Amino acid sequence: MIQKLINFLNNSPVNFLAVAEIKRQLVAAGYNELDATKPMPAVKAGDKLFVTKNDSSIYAFHIGSRTPGESGFHLIAAHCDSPTFRIKPNAEIVNSDGSVKLNTEAYGGAILSTWFDRPLSIAGRVILRSADPLKPETRMLHVKRPILVIPNLAIHFNRQVNDGVKLSKQKDMLPILGYMNDRMEKDSVLLDIISTELNVKKGDILDFDLYLYDTTPACTVGQNDEFISAGRLDDLSMVHAGLEALLSIQETPKTTKVLAVFDNEETGSQTKQGAGSPFLSNILQRLVTAQGGTADDYFRAVEQSFMISADNAHAWHPNYSEKYDPTNHPHMGGGPVVKLNAAQKYLSDAASAAVFRELCHLADVPCQTFVNHSDVAGGSTLGNILSSSLPLRGVDMGNPIWGMHSARETGATLDHEYCIKAFCKFFHQ
């Protein structure tokens, strides 16, 4: 299972490629793609369906034998975006020595210093000219070889570097692509790479959504391979666990199962493909109607549903124990974590936390709790944002990791196996 996670991470360097990989696995498992622009076909028990939005979010459904009004939905939600750097338009900057760097902007809250001196490349989607100007062609781009680096400044020029240095995203974090040569045109170096990789004409490239990623493969670490080290564990490890649980269902379930993988959680979720969008709510309403249900059936289904909002949690760090709550700090390898917050930044309450803890108990999986140190502000995640359009019962949880938002995060292999077991128990209810 850990090797499957490693393969999933390596195939998913950015949100668009993650959705493409999920789609590939769903199709291989017999899921059929819906087109949201067309009328919803008739839906019956046992159908396996999925739909995408913006190429960067995906929603899968295994239709149950009970009508949604009778039993609701069992839903696992996660997100596929991670902090990185987006390549700006007109990105090439040629320096006086002939070196070329790319102009970028930060996406999400990255730990900037962790991106220095790593072999980097680019991935995302490219938009190409087509016969219909309102429907251009979309192609995925995954440059698998290292082509970029963000070099650090030597300590000899920055003697205070180990005392803490304020970094400029515009100055310090621009990646170096290489040196100009006689065959390069100043303003088309990046377009040359794109056209070569996709075997298209530069003139047909209309635009792109491209991001940096660390090309170092995911791997296990530790004396007994007890850790996994990788970029984008937050939140692709939760996506993978949810996908494995969904694909484990062999028979027609009693209750309709839903896996929702959103985009843009790291920037607030307020996009058409984010958890703040009504897209999932709309699709669920259409599915209820396609099964012969009414609007009242849909609203009844929502009231009977349960959601697991899966986003990684902070593991207790042996070097920074003072940052954690004295009685609620999860440990690596100790199992999935229920996240609680008095200011309601998380969806969990006593009733929903009890549901998840009991699922873990039935799956023979340990369960932990995370509450912020009262003097340390915490973040938020999908649960509350999604519940504004889908007022579901639900719990915010995640596996504990170190270095959240670093270019390279660390988790426990045992926790990933625990999480899949807990998710399978949920989806098999």
Give an overview of the whole structure.
The chain is α/β, with parallel strands linked by helices and 429 residues long. It contains ten helices and 20 strands. It has a nine-stranded mixed beta sheet, with helices on both faces. It is globular, with a radius of gyration of 22 Å.
- Count of runs of 4 or more consecutive helical residues: 10
How many domains comprise the coordinates?
Answer: 2
Supply the CATH superfamily name of the largest domain.
Answer: Zn peptidases
Major sheet details: 9 strands, mixed
N to C succession of SSEs? HHEEEHEEEEEEHEEEHEHHEEEHEHEEEH
Rg result: 22 Å
Distance between the termini: 22 Å
Structural class: alpha/beta
Kindly provide the name of the CATH class of the largest domain.
Alpha Beta
Tertiary shape: globular
Estimated share of beta-strand residues: 25-35%
What topology, given as strand order, has the largest sheet? 1-2-3-13-4-14-18-16-17
The number of strands is: 20
Assigned CATH architecture of the largest domain = 3-Layer(aba) Sandwich
Mean pLDDT: 94
Q: Give the fraction of residues assigned to helices.
A: 25-40%
- CATH topology category name of the largest domain: Aminopeptidase
Low-confidence stretches: none
